[in-house]
Amino acid sequence: MILFGISTCDTCKKALKSLAAAGHDVTFRDIRAQPLSGAEIEQIVTEFGSRAVNTQSTTYRGFSDFLKASEPEAQIAAQPAVMKRPVIHTGDKWYVGWDSAVQQALGV
What's the number of domains the chain is made of? Predict the structure, then answer.
C-alpha cells in the first residue's frame, strides 16, 4: 500500500499512523520530495477526476485564473501540494481523503 501525500500534512500523518496500527504495510511517498510522474498524475485524475484537486486549499486559491481553468493534471503537475490528500493505492484500489468511508473500506 502506498500513501501519497506531503510530510507536513496532519491528515497524512493521521492516516499513516492509523493504517500502520491496523497492521497495513504502508509506504509513504512525499510528493514534494519524490514528484509524481505524468503517468501517476494521469492515473489519479482518471480515478478521481476534479476531486483529485483540493479547491479549498490556499495553494489553489493562489493559482492564476489561467491555472484555475486548467485541467486537474496541469494543476497537480504545476503544484503537487494542491492534490487532495492523502491518496492511497492498495495495489488494486484507489482512495482519496481520510473520511470515515475510506477508513472503513481500509479496515481502520
Answer: 1
